[in-house]
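General statements about sequence and structure are easier to judge against a single worked case. No coordinates are needed to read the tokens, only the vocabulary itself. The sequence in question and its structure tokens are set out directly beneath this paragraph.
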Amino acid sequence: MPELPLWLWMITLTTGLVASLVATITGIGEGMMIYGILSGFFGLKLIVPCVALAQLFTASLRFWVFRGVIHWRLACYFFLGVLPGIYGGTFLFHWLSERALRRALGVFLLGFVVYECLQRKAIRVAPRVGLLPLGGCCAGILSRSIGVAGPLLVMVFLRYDLLREELVAMTALYFLLGSAQRTLLYWHQGALSGEHVGLAVALGLAMLGGVYLGRLILPRVSRQLFIKLVLGMLALFGLQFVAFP
């Protein structure tokens, strides 16, 4: 366990708890909130592997808690496109700068929020299931190129009218597989030392508390409020990507 001052432990654990609570209610925001706050204290090279291991705990718990509402048919179609997307994201990463990719994603997110706000007043028709591999491919591209796929996942699953527990369950499945892969990769590369593991376990325990609290709150959130919360999160991420790529 790393030796940290008490105030830094308080900030670290509170950040993990709040970020996990938000992610359990909306499906996204956990990683970006933690990176945005804790990277200033620990640096990205230290905090990224720790978050990968901590997210493995929280994604596993979310998956287990919400496993009964996962749409496995939609999930299978979606994951058909993820691996090709990761492969394509490798080339996109070398072709475009990370700054350009983040700004483009920000514009896309803001456009989606405006579109969804307009569409909510009209009769909605869910896209064909056959289009889900395309969404998975785009998620894979973003995961490999800029490491941010959560907002796109929510965008895709919102279009299929997955809300509340259903949406959180689908994103939990994706992040469970992703965090397991990243944790093994960092372990193989030696980026997860004993000190890193101690910090990751402490952070993960605080994040598990956020999952528990979010599980209690989520059933009390109405469909309309859930949609507003998710679109609000997407708008915040979009503004962040555009203004601070």
